[in-house]
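Practice record 12: protein with NAP.
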Amino acid sequence: VTSSSSAPSAEPSWHSKAASVDWDVRPFIDGEYRDPAADATYEDIDPATESALCEVSVGDARDIGAAVASARRCFEGGAWWEQSPAMRAEVLLKLADLIDEHQEELAILDCLEMGKPIQAALSDAGLGATTLLKSWAGAAEHLLGQSLPLTPGTAGFSAWEPRGVVAAVTPWNFPVTNAIYKLGPALAAGNSVVLKPSELSPSSALKVAELALEAGVPAGALNVVPGLGSTVGEALVTHRDVDFITFTGSTATGKRIMELAGRSHATPLILECGGKSAQVVFDDVADLDDVAAAVLRDAFPNQGQVCAAHTRLVVHKNVREPLLERLLPGARELVPASPLEDSTTFGPLASPAQRDRVRAYVDSGLAAGAEPVLQGEIQESGGCYVSPTIFDRVSTEMAIVQEEIFGPVLCVQSFATDDEAIALANCTDYGLAATVWTRDLSRAKRMARAIRCAGIAVRSSADEGRFADFRSELVLGYEPQKASGFGAEMGVKGLESYSVPKAVYFQGL
Ligand code: NAP
């Protein structure tokens, strides 16, 4: 682990700002922090040092009962959903401004709780969270129904109504933006929300709930209950007064939540789950240096802990060797360092459990005969630091190819024909993202249709153009495929997910 020394400055360092955090991770219910019902707690661990940051209540059904009751009261009272979409949009825009003002505070919480490098955490809490919120605020007034042709004495139209009480469950990899992905469309559509953030990173979601109240979201419209998935999470998704479930996390938990929702009262839901995305490189690419830079950037963002990380390089056999040669020097430069340094771009993994998971997959790849052209170092204690591993000569049945590792491990698969490339790109249960590198337009169109995923980029150069700005994808909208989940969250389509259309007929009026 390296840690660069920063030049002397009047501004306190991130380390001293982190040391002065005043932790309050109690449930935020009905517009205030409340003591949890249960006494039992667990330690919130800083993965950069493996020392405890604070104690968090494991939570139980009583906290969820109070939060759901508050959300229901707020919904039935109409303080939020009966406001016009334009008024709700104004409040959400105010919340975006407040998040921007509190960007540093939010970023330090995410940095400490899940090890996100501070500059990346600032970008998530600033540009990421506010851009997302503004996109749903902008969409709120465009959630329009349809009307039947008028006939004498009759009129018929459809109206979108909020679903009611929304249960949201989120993971730890982008704590603040994961929370916004759920509460943004849910609140824009007029629902009340109970959010259970990951046990590893509950604090920034709690801070957002506090800011939402200040922005004008009424008490009870946004409740946040920290705690464990097995207690708080299950109590929430099985609560009989929940009208809709929105989940982001692993496919295994998504399947479990589907089961629970079915057994509860067939609660409708949307799932954003795992991925094992392919970076497909044909031998007609112009510049392999460009491709190598993109492969590294897409495989190891957030230390590989991104649902859409491109953790499989599917490369034409003619360019496999030269591409690997170009990849390795850049991958060796990804040396993990303290997330509290401005210069750090690659931090620790989010938890000791995540480090164990990555170690187990690396061991399984070695045992199965994959060739580690780069084998990352794994720090065993005092920080969950793991550097990248690249496996060549893998086969499709290996666990490292089929399963989501959620860490810095890239598998290299090679092909000779377009059909083989498609088969490899589609060879896992997942369907989240893909990138294809080619200059051949007809091949590009075929790949775009044949690869099953939520979003695909077909590229001939490293120039990101307008797609560097992630607002483009907010406008286009997408849905995961296969075991990566289902349901839209972005734009007006996202607001439709969090609403129900009602048909209304007037006769003889
Ligand atoms: P996870 O273990 O599935 O947990 C996600 C959330 O579900 C956490 O809040 C967790 O609580 C909760 N949970 C666990 N078991 C539950 C249960 N039985 N009932 C209700 N809630 C339960 O996932 P993770 O490790 O936090 O996050 C990594 C995963 O998220 C990866 O698979 C990644 O691909 C996926 N992800 C997907 C997207 C997307 O948009 N598709 C985006 C980001 C992340 P605890 O924290 O207490 O376990």
